[in-house]
Specification:
With 165 residues, the chain is mainly alpha-helical. It has one domain. 69% of the residues lie in helices and 0% in strands.
Length: 165
């Protein structure tokens, strides 16, 4: 699984586009009164990673980091680009020229492992949000968000394919 250097800009655009689709989804949810992630907490977690601390009892109670909201957004988009790079590496340039939905959705759904198995435990919410008041609801919400991200991977690749024709 290697990505030719000339394919990376396309993977980057696909990742940025897919992350923006996910952000539009999160904005809609927020508008509907559904709680969404505070990206400052991601930035706080990343800031503490740079200081050598991986896990927290509760990230909301951790010492704030200068610029944490910006770090959170930067991390959010960098991870989106990384996931898109995995998709493009697995599917190849032919998929970018003629994208199909299933591989993009599959990668999107698989990306839910990151919050459930890494970020939530590291931020104090436990594996699969087990330390929250509504773990199943939170897991399903994460799955929905990452499915939307997968759909965004497809839409972004489709837009790029249509523009480049």
């Amino acid at each position: 699984m290697t990505l030719p250097l000339q394919e990376f800009p396309l993977a980057m655009l696909i990742g940025i586009g897919a992350t923006a689709v996910m952000d539009a989804w999160l904005l809609l949810l927020k508008h509907l009164g559904v709680p969404t992630l505070n990206f400052a907490f991601i930035g706080r977690w990343v800031g503490h990673l740079f200081r050598g601390q991986f896990a927290h009892a509760a990230i909301a109670k951790a010492v704030p980091i200068r610029g944490e909201l910006a770090w959170g957004w930067l991390t959010h988009y960098a991870v989106g680009v990384a996931f898109a790079t995995v998709l493009v590496s697995l599917q190849g340039a032919d998929w970018v020229r003629s994208p199909t939905l299933l591989p993009a959705l599959a990668v999107g759904v698989c990306t839910v492992a990151a919050p459930l198995l890494v970020m939530q435990p590291a931020m104090g919410s436990g594996f699969a949000a087990s330390r929250t008041p509504t773990p199943l609801k939170n897991c399903l919400r994460s799955l929905a968000n990452h499915t939307v991200f997968g759909f965004g991977l497809y839409l972004s690749a489709l837009a790029i394919a249509l523009i480049s024709r």
